[in-house]
Amino acid sequence: MAGSASDTIAVVGAGVMGRNITALALGRGVDVVLVDVSGDVLESARAEIAQLLRHGQFMGAFPASQATGTLTTTLSSGDVADADVVIEAITEDASLKARVMAELSATVPAGVPLITNTSGIPIAELAKSVQRPAELAGVHFMNPSYLIEMVEVVRGPQTGEDAMAAILALLGRLGRKTVVVRDAPGFVTSRLLHPMINEAARIVAAGTASVEDVDQLMHGCLGHPTGPLRTADLIGLDNLADALRLLAERTGNSTFEPCELLTEKVRAGDLGRKTGRGFYNYGEVLS
Fold first, then answer.
1. Torsion angles phi and psi, residue 241, rounded to 5
2. Which end of the chain has the smaller Cβ count within 10 Å, N or C?
3. Catalytic option among 55, 140, 219, 224
4. Catalytic annotation present for 224
């Protein structure tokens, strides 16, 4: 298995990140088994993944000569058993991730790497739930995964050489550039980005500057591609709030707790692009 190319991957969770990762793999010619607990979510996912593939092709994100992989959707986690690599991409809930990882670990045969797309839960923590901790690692894909070439790979304390080789081989086949980091709460990207977004929201709440002005300054002065608050809308404000709470709990730093403006928006259901309104108004609900 070490260093081998993957013909089929399983993606567990058909939310925003699961759809993005699936589109990336399909566009690179890798077959995908996409698993979710909701048939309606899977139906919606199929339609959006087709849109993402078209957009990726338009943007030149996929090799022009590459045949698109085959997508299979299923409600049964048992259908991951024949995959070469399994990627967990469910919501950022530590207890739920632990239960899902335990189920997946009991389903796949030895030698199949398990990847978690967690944005900040330590791999060592999730490794307690799996049967073979040496086969578990983190890969933090960014949104949109089919356009952002860099990924953060998190090697847990128990992650083995074979699993790392297979995971890096898969990411190479997907055309991703990788940086391998050590395990820690929030790793690198979330530990830096999420508190910055939280502070940006606090600045807006204090009346120091508008949402637009904060993003314009961060873009024009500091080179942030989209600005922190537009980025927050892309992440999903509910996902961001969950990740900040986890970061606060696991570091003991209460300043990482989501600020009141962020929690207010989550309570109101203004979750960003996926609901049509977050820090910005997008005019309609996006599927």
1. -65, -40
2. C
3. 140
4. no
